[in-house]
Amino acid sequence: MRTSQFFISTLKEAPSDAEVVSHQLMLRAGLIRRLAGGIYTWMPLGLRVLRKVEGIVREEMNRAGAIELSMPAVQPAELWQESGRWEKYGPELLRFKDRHQRDFVIGPTHEEVITDVVRREVKSYRQLPLHFYQVQMKFRDEIRPRFGVMRGREFLMKDGYSFHTSFADLQREYDNMYATYTRIFTRLGLAFRAVAADTGSIGGTGSHEFHVLADSGEDALAYCPASGYAANVELAEAVVPATPRPAPIAALTKVATPGKEKCEDVAAFLGLPLTQTVKAIAVVRAEPPQGTPAFTLLLLRGDHELNEIKAQKQIGEFRFAREDEIVAALGSQPGYLGPVDASDAVSVVVDRAAAALGDFVCGANDAGYHLTGVNWGRDLPDPGTGVDLRNVVAGDISPDGAGPLELCRGIEVGHIFQLRTRYAEALKCCFLDENGKTQVMEMGCYGIGVSRIVAAAIEQNHDARGIIFPAAIAPFAVSIVPMGMAKSPAVREAAEKLHDELAAAGIDVLLDDRNERPGVMFADMELIGVPHRIVVGERGLAEGRLEYKGRRDAEAQMIAADAMLDFLK
Ligand code: ATP
Ligand code: MG
Ligand code: MG
Ligand code: MG
């Protein structure tokens, strides 16, 4: 490929609303462009990455014995009414009417549709087991789409569904998928961890999530090095026995939830009015071992949806190290705060916040209240809200009693479930067994967030100059940057020859023939994360050599031109 025949559109600066590094870099590198909240166009360069992820997922699913099909995005409401999820799913389910006033949804997931297919097609135990999968755009009307394609509303998912005559056979396939997912994320070149997970609104019994490890991850994970026990903290909180907490030595977090009287108490106490938009206020005080204590005032809009805590929307945040900064910020944000007297606001807010934190220590985790002891540097605050809502802290003994738990953050990129008969029963998906007796099928389901993986990979692999794609998913494996190609026929010829040679060897090569200044071409190739770069210049050519630099290398090195292909392999 030549840049002149492709489309590269990079930006010097990321738009200011891009909060996490992967979102910033995906915009800067021109991988995606925003159409609406949580809805993105995959630009040609980004699409190449997406397709590589998809390709690896597809190869491993096929190898594992799953069979690909493609189901409609638009699904009739009747199926969702049959499963009971029409009522249960909540506003994440995008519903609409057709011209005949019939209800439809845009599929956030496909348990209903696949179960409908299988109940019509499969009659006998002889046809089972079966595992169907697809790679398809899903739509979830996320309450807070954010971080670009990390939490989009429209996003690409691989979703698979397996059907079995017995629980034992479902467990076999579940183990098969666990191994398959492990292979997929290994091939993708990502640092990941599988953790036991809550089964959430899909229901069912056994479940594991696969997380790409990254500090910016929305999920907190608990891990016990002594035994390998690993769980999403959501789940660990339910099973880890309550241990007496040491007194929080450094910091406290308090969140008042809306609609509860205590919220108003806190507001009154802090002297801040609750308005139409500000329905909850949280004050976070953190005292690092070194430096000045920092106060964070969070103004939350609590649209209570499925999960009370997760659904809290943060609509404003002021994070300060110094009191005078608080004054300035309070003064400049009257819309959120209402009429606050800036002159004494700081000391009032800070004093009251500190006092309030002291007062409410005993109220931890009462209804309408969430208070967690946080030790600076030991626990990690939620990157989105800055608030820590966990009960499980590092050092707690793991449920298996093997040793202390460590905590880290992860991005959920895969999720496997034993659904058992949850859907098959509701939709009457049955088969005839050896004795001619009707039985309900056992089901499993297996999701991978294909588009989220692209963001997660960048979150884990980048530096100050841009993306460092793992080789398996890089848009191009090698870039060729010619020096002064317009003026030097020798350079042009050598660059073209090298391009053709590498392309013929099946290497994804990008020849930058834009005739830009070298600095511009270098910066772009680094920004978009091409793992290998070859510079073709007159001086090197005179000695029969090319300059090579790996994306993570500190220094370039000279390689004999005729040895380059072998070197890259
Ligand atoms: P999350 O906890 O992040 O909301 P989920 O548990 O709701 O995800 P699943 O129903 O398990 O998601 O869907 C399977 C996979 O689809 C997830 O593991 C994740 O990788 C991906 N996914 C889910 N929601 C989104 C989204 N809004 N944007 C991008 N990928 C998503
Ligand atoms: Mg979700
Ligand atoms: Mg989840
Ligand atoms: Mg999940």
UniProtKB/TrEMBL annotation:
EC category name: ligase
GO cellular component: cytosol
Keyword Aminoacyl-tRNA synthetase: yes
EC number annotated for this UniProt entry: 6.1.1.15
GO molecular function: aminoacyl-tRNA deacylase activity; ATP binding; proline-tRNA ligase activity
Residue ranges of domain Aminoacyl-transfer RNA synthetases class-II family profile in the record: 38-470
Alphabetical keyword list: Aminoacyl-tRNA synthetase, ATP-binding, Cytoplasm, Ligase, Nucleotide-binding, Protein biosynthesis
Record PROSITE patterns: AA_TRNA_LIGASE_II (PS50862)
Keyword ATP-binding: yes
Catalytic activity: tRNA(Pro) + L-proline + ATP = L-prolyl-tRNA(Pro) + AMP + diphosphate
GO biological process, one term: prolyl-tRNA aminoacylation
Subcellular location: Cytoplasm
Gene3D superfamilies in UniProt: Anticodon-binding domain (3.40.50.800), Bira Bifunctional Protein, Domain 2 (3.30.930.10), YbaK/aminoacyl-tRNA synthetase-associated domain (3.90.960.10)
Similarity comment text for this entry: Belongs to the class-II aminoacyl-tRNA synthetase family. ProS type 1 subfamily.
Subunit structure: Homodimer.
Domain notes per entry: Consists of three domains: the N-terminal catalytic domain, the editing domain and the C-terminal anticodon-binding domain.
Protein purpose: Catalyzes the attachment of proline to tRNA(Pro) in a two-step reaction: proline is first activated by ATP to form Pro-AMP and then transferred to the acceptor end of tRNA(Pro). As ProRS can inadvertently accommodate and process non-cognate amino acids such as alanine and cysteine, to avoid such errors it has two additional distinct editing activities against alanine. One activity is designated as 'pretransfer' editing and involves the tRNA(Pro)-independent hydrolysis of activated Ala-AMP.
This protein's name: Proline--tRNA ligase
